[in-house]
Amino acid sequence: MMGRYPLAEILLFEVLHILVFFPTRHNLYRVIIIALMIYLAAKIYLTMEATEPAGLAYTVGHTIALNLGFTAYLLWTEGSFLNHWRRVRDEVGAGADADGSNDLPSNFPLTKKLWWMLDITHSVRMVGWVQEPKDSLPPPPPPSRGTFLWKTSLKFIVNIVFLDLFTLIFAQNPVFDPHVHEPTDGPETYLAAIPLLHRAPYALAFGFWVALWFKIPHNLGALVCVGLGRSSPTLWPDVWGRWGDAYTLRKLWGRTWHQTMRPMLSGFGRLVANKFLKFPRGTNLSSYTQLYVAFLMSAVFHFAGEFMYERRVVYRSLKFFPLQAVAITLEDFIIFIAKRSLLKRGIKLNPGNSDESWAEAVVRVVGYCWVTLWFCLTLPGYIDGASLAGNYITDRWFIAQFLFDKWKLWV
């Protein structure tokens, strides 16, 4: 049974999410659009009846919450519409203000207003806007259009191949697939049933599998937008940071993991820490408040997806994401104590640099082991319930099925 998907309401919500960013000075216009968005979102959440596929239901619920959050972020945390919602000049591009981007958006011609509206709707990472988080995004690609299209095409093909191969791990695997379980099996019979240290390959496979599901549409969007001349290559940095930086939980979540929600989560964190609670910027009170607010908001957005396909609310995301903030706090404390102890002995370690010493390399390897162990411990509580609901059901793709058939013959 597929359940009921209110397709008309979902499409109308997406249209309203685009229209809310139309550059106009009339705030009443946005109030009406937002009221309609909230009404439609509530109706979809309360009336959608989805049993299969769970992944589609999760995507609908998560996307609606993310769009509402992004709208609130731009309206409530970035101040005046006219003063803040503007593109910055592409310094490596065609030249100074080639398209008049320094004008106020409400003064644009109608055609440019429409393109601008579509642009900001799909700019959750705020790449190329004044709110771009330059401290965490991967470096922008060079402006050469031909080189960018060629490299991105290769990445797209390679990512498709790897995603195909990863279906070998997910399809008909009792760690993820409910089809090979008894109907009475609970979530504790999935990844949680694997001995702790044996979970590492599955935890890593899950992370890379999710990464590929983000990279492929990102590659495709880049090829279309740059290929049609609607975007500069510099506006399409990788959706992921360097995996080599993921030797602490803070660096994994802050630099490596996809940055889709980073500006929005940071904006809400600053709003609570600096405007509501009045903590001075740069203090521990401010930075850790921002950390916990960011992970709590992330938990809410992910929970919105879980709620859509599972009315038996189990609060997986509301446990998993705040727990990451707690672990980062403890991790920071341990690193602080270790660095202070080493400095007293005249030792200063700075792992991750290209010229790192052997001791710094060892520290980084230990860090990778710690991060992997942490997810071996915590990931089952997050994904096993979703596996039971069928969120990760997949068939083997072409290459994976070919290799599987050949492997059966060899065995």
TrEMBL record:
Q: What Pfam families does this protein's entry cite? A: MBOAT_2
**UniProt-recorded Gene Ontology molecular function terms:** O-acyltransferase activity
- Annotated keywords: Membrane, Transferase, Transmembrane, Transmembrane helix
- Please give the biological process terms from Gene Ontology that the record holds: lipid metabolic process
Question: How far does the signal peptide extend, from start to end residue?
Answer: none
**Domain Wax synthase, chain residue ranges per copy:** 236-321
Q: How does it sit in the membrane?
A: Multi-pass membrane protein
Give the top-rank taxon of the lineage listed in the UniProt record for this protein: Eukaryota
Q: Where is the protein situated, by its record's location annotation?
A: Membrane
* Membrane-spanning segments: 6-22, 29-48, 54-76, 156-176, 196-214, 291-309, 321-338
Pathway membership of this protein?
Secondary metabolite biosynthesis
Q: Does the keyword Phosphoprotein apply?
A: no
InterPro entries xref list: Wax_synthase, Wax_synthase_dom
* Cellular component, GO annotation: membrane
**In which family does this protein belong, per the annotation?**
Belongs to the wax synthase family.
Q: What is this protein called?
A: Membrane bound O-acyl transferase family-domain-containing protein
